[in-house]
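Hi, here's the filled form for the chain we discussed.

Project: internal
Contact: R.S.
Residues: 304
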Amino acid sequence: MSYADDMEVRSLRNDEWDHLARLIFHSTNDWYQKNLNRQCFGGDDPLVCRIFPEVYEALDPGCCLVAEVDGTLAGSCFYHPRETHVSLGIMNADPGFVGRGVARTLLQEIINRSGDQPIRLVSSALNIDSYSLYTRAGFQPLAIYQDMIVPTEVELPPISSRIRTATLSDLPAILALEDQISGISREKDWRYFLNDDSSTWRGFVFETDGKITGFLFSVNHPGSRMLGPGVMRSHAAAFELIVAQLATFEGETPLFLVPASETALIQSLYKVGARNCEIHLSQVLGDAQDPKGITMPTFMPETG
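And the returned structure, exactly as it came back:
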């Protein structure tokens, strides 16, 4: 399919994964360095960002779109069709193609492909260009999240006895809880985590009177160290799950997103030494249920 300015939008090819990893690494770090005086992806090896095509092509083959201009990958975006919605993943545009409408073209193509399904995303509230891109397309903010970290020198509280490792047998309860709290379903993601036999993904559940009232997964990889996704009925469950996940990172400092409206949870996190480092917004094009509990999105995978 051809676009103005000789731009072609097509699916990512398997032989382009390294090229895409470099695009994600350098374009994202370029924005963070210029605007926040820090990197998003640490180190100097751009191939850590191969985690994006590796995971997303396993979950959703063919759902990475790239914009090619004069034989060069000018931009990319992943999208994730799910039972109840389409999720928009990481969007990147090569700084050399600023002003060519790369991100706008990719977004419109995903909107066209999504039909009548709601489209959901989480994006930085500090990136006004990104915010404008989505709101011009009709997206509306749904929730505000505080990006938080807990420094490695902090002594964490003991792990609650109501926490245990998630197993595949928990899948029905996980699906039911997310449906009740968020009104969405993404079964393939939970199956992917629960079937993983590496140390990259970890999942914990929180039980109250023998029932799962919260769960939280995490990713621990050089290209993404984050807590989430997860949902919880109470701030107590969320706090205990966060503590349990942090304890598994052994000297690393994972990022996690907490709803800014959850004052009690945030105050509990401040007391153990948590710090804010950014603000993100969840946004939706179409209908969405207001959360009926606590939701913790993540950037790997961005399927909520």
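Let me know if anything looks off before we file it.
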